[in-house]
Structure formats: structure tokens, C-alpha cells
Amino acid sequence: MQKFKLMLICSMVILWSNTGRSYFPNLGAGARPMGMGGAYIGLADDANAPFFNPAGLTQLMKRELTAMYSMLYVGLNPILYTAKTDRLGYHLVSYVQPVRQNTDAIAVSWLAFNSTFYDENTFTLSYARYLYFSHRAKVFSSLSSGFNLKILNIGIEAGEYTKLDSDLSTHALSKSDVTLDFSLLLSVTSKMNLGLIAANIRPANMGLIKQEEVPLRLGAGLSYKEGNTLQLIDFSWRDKILNGRKEFNLKLGIEHWLLRQACIRAGYDIKSISTGASYRYGDRYEMQLDYAFIYPLSSFVNTFGTHRFALSIRF
Question: What is the largest CA-CA distance in the chain?
């Protein structure tokens, strides 16, 4: 796709070089999950669940609203073809509403990446419900399913470059399509959960000039909780990332709560290491502040990493 010419001039090809495609890079979502390396498929117990495993929404007993603000790759300062510094943004808002006496849940969310000239938006409607639940069973006490309907949108801002480019000047500078996710969450024991997800099941063509599909992604994750400590591991696979090759990833995370109000966490995946912290307070209206620091292990130099901040309210 000739859009890469624009990325080269604007240095964005460097920014996304580890994904092989410029649209919808797998940057993860939220501050709490990314503080644990993005290992969240087997947990997914808050308003970040739609982005990892929508089946986990059945675990929420209260309504929840979360918002995240990100500072991507601080110090990188990509330069545009106009010689100006680009500004990169990556943000989300997600709201969850339990229904039917907490046996079902629905959620609406918005995830956005934006720069001076290029934008990506994902609007998601999620639904989850218990397929099976038992208070008496010590193993396999519950099974939940989850579903995402996602509307994907990309857009390039018209400018001098788009007028001069022979391909971009004759094609629309925005594109939208729809895709689907399906997931499961199984309570193996009172301490362990298993999560599974198939994302982008319906091929979404996001190519502005020729057909280019957002790749299918499959994932599995385990979470294990002992006291105030949570341990997580995820495996993921994505199809046709670069030159037809597949992408495999391993993610590890750990979280420990102190005095039920403060939390520290750390994580690892093949491309980055991370750490984070949280503080929560309140009873009827519980608020939680989350922070995550993610440092890339490859593809980037002269950066102070990515910083994410999130605020969640449960009521």
C-alpha cells in the first residue's frame, strides 16, 4: 500500500517497523493491563476487558467507567515532511454496565491513535454472559462467553503531500469496516482462570488503495491468584503481519496489592518490559488511579519509553 511512502517521509515507518503494518498496531490497551506486560486474557476483570477478553465482563459487579491517556515513546520526536515534530496520541474510554442481576454485561468503548496527519479509531460494542455458574463446584465453577462488534476507521489528513502523491490524490483518504471478536473465560479453580480469544474473525479491509486486511489474532491466557498476589501468562498469534509471516508472542505479568489500596506490578513480553502502580479509594463510589511505564526492547532508540495514565470509577 502506497500509504507507506507517507510513513517513510514522516518517519512513522520507524515507529511501527516492528509490526510490519501501519494500521491498528498492537499497542495494547489500558494502564493496568500494560503494567503487567499486556498479559490480561486470563484476567480481564475491569473495564479494560473488551480489549483483551470481553467474556471477563461478567466478573464486574458494579458499573465501571475508565479513561486512559498515553505519552507514546517519549523523546522519540518523529519529524514530519514539513520539518515539524509530530504529536502522537493513544487514548481510550470504556464503560461497562452489568445487567440481569450480574449474569450478563454490556460495554461500549473507544480506542484512538492519532498523529498530526493520521488517525485510527476503534468503536466497540461488547456483550458477555455466564454460560454456566455454580457456587458449589470447586473446579470449573463458571464459564462465560464474550462478543465484540468493532467498527474500525482510519483517516489521512489532506495536505500538500496527499495532493502530490499520485495514489493518494485519486483515492479516498478515509476508510471504515467492521470486524468481530469472540472469547471465553473459564474458572478452572477458585484461584485460576483460563481465557481464550479469537479477534478480528471477520476480515476487515482497511486498505485505502488496495485490499489489506487487519490480521486474525488468537490468544490464550492463564491467571493465578494466591492471597494478594496475581500471576499471569498469555500466548498470542497473529496472521500475516509482515511478508506473510506469522507473529507469536509470550507475555508475563505479576501484580501485588498492599493494604487493599496500593498496588505494584511488572510485566514482560517479547518486545518490551513494563512496570506500574495503582491507588484506589472510596466505597460506594470507588476510584482507582493507574500508571504504567513500558520500555521497548527493540526497534527504538533515544526514547524514554511510553507512559500511560488511567482513571477508573466504579459505582
Answer: 68
With cell 473446579, the residue in question is: 139
User: Which candidate, 127, 136, 120, places its Cα nearest to that of 23?
Assistant: 120
pLDDT value at residue 163 = 60
Ordered structural domains, the chain, with CATH: 3-314 (2.40.160.60)
Buried b (16+ CB within 10 A) or exposed e, 277-305: bbebeeeeeeebebbbbbebeeebeebeb
37-73 pLDDT per residue, tens? 999 999 999 999 999 999 999 999 999 999 999 988 8
Helix (H, G, I), strand (E, B) or coil at 300: coil
How many of the other CB atoms lie within 10 Å of CB of 309? 14
Looking at residues 178-185, what average pLDDT do you find?
A: 98
Element (H, E) at 249: strand 245-258
**Length of the chain measured in residues:** 315
Closest CA to 183 of 173, 195, 193, 174: 195
Contact 105, 96 (CB under 8 A): yes
Q: Which residue(s) pair with 94 in the sheet?
A: 66, 109
Question: Average of pLDDT values for 287-312?
Answer: 89
* Distance in angstroms (rounded) separating the CA atoms of residues 4 and 209: 11
Residue labelled with grid coordinates 502522537 = 88
Of 88, 112, 82, which Cα lies nearest the Cα of 15? 88
Helix (H, G, I), strand (E, B) or coil at 168: helix
In order, the DSSP letters of 84-98 are PBP--EEEEEEEEEE
What's the average model confidence in pLDDT over 260-275? 95
pTM score, two decimals?
0.86
Above 80 in pLDDT, residue 27?
yes
Name residues whose C-beta falls within 8 Å of residue 25's C-beta, 6 or more positions apart in sequence.
16, 19, 113
How is the chain split among helix, strand and coil, in percent rounded to 5?
A: 10, 55, 35
Q: Of the candidates 7, 13, 27, which has an alpha carbon nearest to the alpha carbon of residue 71?
A: 27
